[in-house]
Design a protein that fits this description.
A 4-stranded antiparallel sheet has the order 1-2-4-3, with helices on one face. Strand 3 and strand 4 form a beta hairpin. The chain is globular, with a radius of gyration of 16 Å. The chain has one domain: Heat Shock Protein 90 (2-Layer Sandwich), CATH 3.30.565.10. By secondary structure, it is α+β, with helices and mostly antiparallel strands.
């Protein structure tokens, strides 16, 4: 969180990024690997001008989350089913998402625009 504050991310943006990374990491660990072999998941963070780019790279089964159909949102919390919303949440909270499969690895890059923290105008 300190890193996010140092580069000018709002508390809301920091929370949104944390939610997305938690969802994606959980999905990779839960569904991305077959067998009991050791795997690596690599996170890379870059800041360029006013964009924070977080890349997640894994050596799991090929999976492009951008090809997954949009989920139908439940009418209320009681009718919601567990699972299926992580990718939807990530699409909604990030400004841009890119996927590529290279050299046997999935790479998902999330971009978040860094906006200046300004006091609300009166």
């Amino acid at each position: 969180m300190a890193f996010g504050r140092n580069i000018g991310l709002s508390e809301i943006s920091i929370s949104e990024i944390n939610i997305c990374l938690d969802e994606l990491f959980t999905n990779i660990v839960s569904y991305g690997f077959k067998g009991d072999l050791e795997h690596k998941i690599k996170f890379t963070i870059k800041v360029d001008a006013n964009i924070l780019a977080v890349s997640i790279e894994d050596d799991g089964v090929p999976f492009n989350p951008l090809e997954k159909k949009a989920v139908e949102l439940p009418a209320d919390v009681m009718s919601a089913k567990i699972g299926g919303l992580g990718i939807h949440i990530t699409r909604e909270l990030m400004d841009k998402i890119c996927y590529e499969r290279k050299r046997g690895k999935n790479k998902l890059t999330l971009n978040k625009i860094i906006q200046e923290n300004r006091a609300p105008s009166a």
